[in-house]
């Protein structure tokens, strides 16, 4: 698959479709060198201002934000934006749910019903191509931080860069290792490898997103071990490591943070059956935040 690049013609077409979201866009060769205007920076800080309604099923909408014109992507708009792209997601079940939300946006419901069983095979990888749009989506089961570190090293070694990289971990570490400090050390290694992807000059680099941990509803967790180890205090400690280790761009890190924690708190405990995995509306919101941020960062 050839490298993905948004032409000016395509970008102007997208601007019209998205009701003049942005004008004269061009994707830079490296997100490390984004130069955002003050208004763009302000809008990036407002991505997660979501309003929720809880009459079943849960639904979300953008909160009103002056001078920030966020739009929900249709299948047509998302397909045009991502045409020719290689999308690589790696992580635990939260990353898998984000991939499902992306496929629900790109495919019609009958197609989703045929791919969902394969996507949710326990502890497995998943791969799909959409030949009519030249889109390739890969999900790699990578529950531990070391899995992600080795993936980034492999990308750097092969110089076969995805166009969109979605990463996230922490739940397995919290359950099976239960040590925030060790989690933070592992995050530092991920950050170092991610930054190294941005360093070679003259190369095309991926847009990189990090998935925050969801709000855990302890009373709904489905095993006693989870209830004992995955407490609110432990979740807070793990979230603190993400910020203190400088993973998000707001902390000089390489990743745009998709704040699943904030989105799940907004949707609320009625949006989860097992206290950890949430209604699809949460991950649909995350995908729309991701696509909008790609446009704004390309201003």
Brief characterization of the structure:
With about 300 residues, the protein is an alpha/beta fold.
Helix content: 40-55%
Largest sheet: 6 strands, mixed
**Gross CATH architecture:** 3-Layer(aba) Sandwich
Helix and strand composition category: alpha/beta
GO molecular function: acetyltransferase activity
Protein name: Pmr5/Cas1p GDSL/SGNH-like acyl-esterase family protein
Subcellular location: Membrane
Keywords: Membrane, Signal, Transmembrane, Transmembrane helix
Task: Describe the protein's architecture and organization.
By secondary structure, this protein is an alpha/beta fold. The chain has a single domain (8-297), classed as Rossmann fold (3-Layer(aba) Sandwich), CATH 3.40.50.1110. Helices cover 44% and strands 13% of the residues. The chain contains twelve helices and eight strands. It has a six-stranded mixed sheet with strand order 4-5-3-6-7-8, sandwiched between helices. Helix 4 (93-106) crosses helix 12 (280-297) and helix 11 crosses helix 12 (280-297).
Features:
single chain, 299 residues, alpha/beta, Rossmann fold, six-stranded mixed sheet, two-stranded antiparallel sheet, 8 strands
Which helices and strands appear, and what pairs or packs with what?
Blueprint: H1 8-17, H2 38-44, E1 50-53, E2 59-62, H3 75-81, E3 86-91, H4 93-106, H5 109-119, E4 126-130, E5 135-141, H6 145-158, E6 164-168, H7 171-176, H8 180-197, E7 207-211, H9 224-229, H10 232-244, E8 256-258, H11 260-267, H12 280-297
Parallel strand pairs: 3-5, 3-6, 6-7, 7-8
Antiparallel strand pairs: 1-2, 4-5
Helix pairs in contact: 4-5, 4-12, 6-8, 8-10, 11-12
Subcellular location: Membrane
GO molecular function: acetyltransferase activity
Signal peptide: 1-31
